[in-house]
Write a structure and sequence with these properties.
Helices cover 26% and strands 31% of the residues. By secondary structure, the protein is an alpha/beta fold.
Length: 407
């Protein structure tokens, strides 16, 4: 067998040797052997290990597709994620100061989506295997919060009650203050017996809320979240930061960036992750494309105490970005777009007079593209921080500060 030296990691976490040849599970500096199949290596054997290689803490790691990087030391993994961001910026001719990476601890994920399938003996639930549609059971997962693990037997029960023979359920589970919030998709059509079975499961498992293909079956208690202590009841399936720890780290940096502004616009505001805490010190206009999330934000503000005015607007910021003149007068902007970035909206911010921008991103490539637009129009990328909520994954998240260059 041919020996290969791993030069770097690819963006999906595979080792990359000259060729390129992609080697699953290999780390930079390692020497491996194997049989090449196109650009990939199979029958891999490690001849020389990296000093950054560690024993995966989870016994499910080899088969489960939930984590990709448990075999890499934490410090090396944090450095690699920083390098991903730095490389994306360099491709746009940019550089900046990197603040220390913040990584969420193990067993802190507060939301996930399980796959659940009926079997001849009952049901099984877990995550899909690596590059596979096989469901891997994960009773000793090191990623999820212990309270979230309680959703596994529930997912199995839901599959028995309402999964078809051919299609697994998607069971989205989220931790809330009073209990689990469960949103199921890909299930059988609702009928009377299924509704009764689901309502009974909601009671038996002490759920806060259960919805089925977009319809709420039962709400025992409001599925409340708290953003910096401010209670919010998001709609079923609403976006939330993956860990409470990561949310707090992002919020701390965002609050520091917009500190001193008396009026702030929050773009892609969700249910108010940043809008509501910022409103302790500044008036906020929150813009979000999902009307249910906007309504949840507005209701939370109306019931909260001690906040300055928060106005909200439902608007598709991809098709109808706020124009530069609409942004005029705000002392700071917060923007937290999905993976596609916010090219159209960033173009309008770049032409506005907003002096400070706090940019949260889950995609270094689209972030770097949008950052380049801001810099071309007079902003300075003063610093950024990688916030790793998706521990042991290849996912990279960050928060960055932009300020108009006074010169």
């Amino acid at each position: 067998m041919t020996e290969y030296t791993i030069r770097r990691l690819g963006h999906l976490g595979d080792g990359v040797a000259d060729g390129p040849v992609f080697v699953a599970g290999a780390l930079p500096g390692e020497v491996v052997t194997g049989t090449a199949e196109g650009e990939r290596l199979r029958d891999i054997r490690i001849v020389k290990s990296s000093s950054d290689r560690v024993s995966p803490p989870c016994r499910h790691f080899k088969s489960c597709g939930g984590c990709q990087m448990q075999h890499m030391a934490d410090v090396a993994l944090a450095d690699w994620k920083t390098d991903i961001v730095r490389t994306a910026l360099q491709a746009q001719g940019l550089d900046t100061e990197f603040l220390p990476t913040h990584t969420s601890p193990p067993n802190t994920r507060r939301r996930t989506t399980f796959a659940a399938r009926r079997t001849k003996k009952g049901a099984m639930a877990g995550f899909y295997g690596r590059q596979s549609d096989a469901i891997i059971e994960i009773p000793d997962c090191h990623l999820l919060h212990p309270r979230l693990m309680a959703a596994l037997p529930l997912a199995e029960a839901l599959a028995v009650a309402g999964a078809s023979r051919k299609t697994p359920l998607r069971v989205a589970a989220t931790l809330t203050e009073p209990g689990l919030d469960i949103a199921v998709t890909e299930g059988k059509p609702l009928d009377g017996p299924l509704r009764m079975a689901l309502a009974e499961l909601c009671q038996t498992h002490d759920l806060a809320r259960l919805s089925w293909d977009g319809e709420t079956i039962a709400t025992r208690l409001p599925p409340e979240q708290r953003f910096d202590g401010i209670p919010v009841t998001p709609p079923a399936g609403a976006f939330l930061q993956a860990t409470k720890d990561g949310e707090e780290a992002l919020r701390t940096d965002v609050l520091n960036i917009v500190k001193g502004a008396t009026s702030v616009i929050d773009l892609f505001a969700g249910c108010g992750t940043f809008s509501l805490p910022v409103a302790r010190k500044a008036a906020v206009h929150a813009v979000e494309g999902d009307r249910a999330m906007t309504s949840a934000l507005d209701s939370a503000w109306r019931h909260a105490q001690g906040l300055k005015k928060v106005t909200s607007e439902t608007r598709d910021l991809f098709r109808q970005p706020l124009q530069a003149d609409e942004l005029s007068g705000f002392g700071a902007a917060i923007i937290d777009p999905p993976r596609a970035g916010a090219e159209a909206q960033i173009a309008q911010i770049a032409q506005s007079d907003i002096p400070v921008v706090a940019h949260v991103s889950c995609n270094p490539v689209t972030f770097a593209r949008d950052a380049a637009t801001l810099v071309r129009h007079g902003y300075k990328l003063t610093h950024l921080r990688v916030i790793d909520q998706f521990r042991w994954s290849v996912h990279v998240e960050l928060v960055a500060e932009f300020r108009r260059d006074a010169s």
